[in-house]
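User: Teach me something about this protein's shape.
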Amino acid sequence: MFLEITGFWLVLLAIIAFILIIGIIISLHELGHLIVAKKSGILCHEYSIGFGPIIYKHQFKETLFCIRLIPLGGYVQMAGEQLTDGLVKVSEEIGLNLSNDTVTELILDNKMDAEVRGNVVSFDLTGKDDEPLYITINDGLQDRYFNVSKEAYYVFDNSKRLQIEPYERSFDSKHWLLRLATLFAGPFMNFILAMVIYLIVSFATGVPNMNSNTIGSTMDLYPVANILEAGDEILAINDVKTNSWYDVTNTFDKMHKEYVTSYKIKYKDKSDNNIVKEDTFEAYSYVVSIGLSNIGVSKEDRINRTYDLKLDDDTITTITGLKLGTISLRYKGGTSDITKGDIITSMKNGDDVIYQGESLTWGNIIKYFYESSDNNLPNVTFTYYHYNEEKDNYTYQEKSEVIEPYTHEVLESQNVEYFKVLIGVSPSYHFSFFECIGDAFMRFGSDFTIIFRTLKLLIWPQTVRQISVNDLSSFVGIFAMIQSYINSGFLVLLAFMAMLSVNIGIMNLLPIPALDGGRIVFVLVEAITRKKVNKKVESIINTVFFVLLMILLVYITIHDIMRFF
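Assistant: First, the predicted structure itself:
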């Protein structure tokens, strides 16, 4: 028996799932950078998951592995990425610790003990032209020359050390192809993670058995619930014969396009000796573009459409209308006034009545909005009686709700149907190795392209612009989505994690300074021009864009918090 998680436990599980999902995605992203960097001979000082104070660290060879308090990012600190030129300066006092007359530690804290102390006379701590590393200091009596180990450390205090960066171990010293591979490796790991998850989901669930007309499952609380069940065979829909799920799908699609919302289904009842039966189902209708549906409304209320309403003055009135079920406030121009249980009585364009009475059907509403042009959106007014759940009555005064629907372009870009007509059946599933692999690649391809369609809606010139920065999600929005998926099952969460991994991978490849994609652009510019971009200029550009991205993230987060609460 399925147990729905609510309240405190829902929030707690959502927090745990959020940390695990974000942590795994970020960990593998940074691991991609780390592996390729090390294979390329680049010195990696630190591999860190999260930002802020360190809550766990472990030194493994030359790399410090850290988990930090705020699990909203990560980084691999490579040699050459930070400007270390100013750590040692001529004439400044420095301390040295030696091993076999070779410097192994450069003590930058003048309060710490050191074997040798003095003022720097000259030094070369990078060896860019294959020269040996050295430092010369004056100890107050004479100038002393010391060779410096390529594995020596800067020591800032008792708890902070940084290995010196010989030029051949730096990011900048490597061939541009190796640098390109190092930068691309992070997003590539996100894509690999997503594909692995898609394969797991596909192999776990199987793929629809399209050659069978047998029902695989039915949805509780949907129109077919307690009538059709898994194992029944659909023989005909509205007198159209169906011998396979291809037939079932094609028949539903055809009637979908004709705005049919009532279905007569002939089926073989497996629980009753395979007797052939026939039932009529009034479907759930969901006009996604405006966020209104009758999902959850009883069969009697969907069919009869005539209601005796008790008003708040205890009088009774009889009206004809459509009772609303699940409401989505995502539609353009919607407000919180319209709620589940309200009853629509008419649909107008200005003062002109479009539908009322018997003509006010879900099929007609769907047709009206679906056949509208993106360049000429219908801006309609619904009048309806508002249901007061606490008092179990309706207001005696009709209200108006102006609706501006999402365009076809916006919904199609997000792989969202403009409208849905649902009865609650799905096909049987079976395991097919090659079909499961194909299904995984299709899922990956769909999620891979959706972000580009979204970016197009954000930046490309449009006659009607309905997507803005306010519609983007921060980590707060991601948490809200994870919370909404908790009760949908482990595989649904896995699929969401795969989608998120793809999105993070692509976002990091966008040609924006401070992201992997921006740094890739600098590498490609160098490859084309044969000239290195000035390190200080690149650092300034990356810093400026990083600040801008943080400002944008704060802005999006504020809007997410407002939506969440």
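Now, about its shape. The longest helix spans residues 7-39. The first strand starts at residue 44 and ends at 60. If you'd like, I can walk through any region in more detail.
User: That's plenty for now, thanks!
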